[in-house]
Amino acid sequence: MLGSTHEFPDDIRTADIARLSLEKLLDHDESETERLFHACQTYGFFHLITDGAEGRQFQADLQRMYELDEALHSLPEEAKMKHAYAPPKQLFGFKQAGRNKVESGAPDRYEAWTLSQDDILGTASDPKRPDNPEAVQSHRDDIASFIRGAHRLVELICSHLDKHLELPAGTLAGLQSLAEPSQTSLRLLRYLPQPPGDRRTSLVGHTDIGTITILGTNIGGLQVLPPGSTDEEQNWAYVKPEDNCVVVNMGDAMAEWSGGILRSDLHRVSYAPGAQANDTKLSVAYLARPQKDALMAPLDFGGRIPRSENGERHTALEWERIKSEAIISGRDVPRSKGGYAGRGEVDVSPRL
What is the pLDDT, as a whole number, of residue 91? Predict the structure, then answer.
């Protein structure tokens, strides 16, 4: 991995999120599946140890995405801006640093390339197909391999959650099929070192609108808001990067489908702590979303998920648009959703 020569400091607050074994989950180890369900209800985050043959293959694919991340962000600014994204009409392409704002109203401090899963896999014939740079076009096979590997992780996690939520096998994965059009994307991010004396949030606090995010990152900076905590500066806790691991988190769609049992936790990216603050941070995020025609409501199969009192039924595409417009207009603010933590069931206090 493209890492840091500097160690993550051991004297700062970190979130005590679970470390789960991919190999054990593939073997359906009973203890590991219970720990996964607990993690998805409390922080909504966990480290996934990419052990075993499948894990090693995923790490090899991830390494190639780090290299693509570096190559894309090394392009001249003029070349990158030819592929600038233009939300809400065009969600894919290049986002320059400073285009959005953080909590204080100051410009953000990250840049990103967002690639469409549908485009890379040829899932949908879209007349507005993204105009990718040559660095993407020449690595389509590598990108497709990474996407398929990340999606297998999503399917595996969903299979365990189906069991605990008392859903028919294949329910959650069936709502986000690779074969169906969606807004699922691969995002390659870069955070440059911040000047001493002016270090702050790079990416504003938010939840992920989709289902499950698979994140690889080379140094620190990711922070979560522990369940039961108010959104105040002193409550944010770093997620320490772990070797041969990816970070997994639940998104808003999983909180919705589970009737609030699963937690979509507020998180942000700040400056890297300690000496890592002098390094460039690279992140590779697979942002899974529901297929466009999936219905967004609690999955009522007569099992563990509570019945919804709300009769509204939107497709995922409509639901995502409504939620995004509410945030942009100020009618809603980013906040954690779902989960049992903070109601007295578990202790998820950050550790020092």
Answer: 83
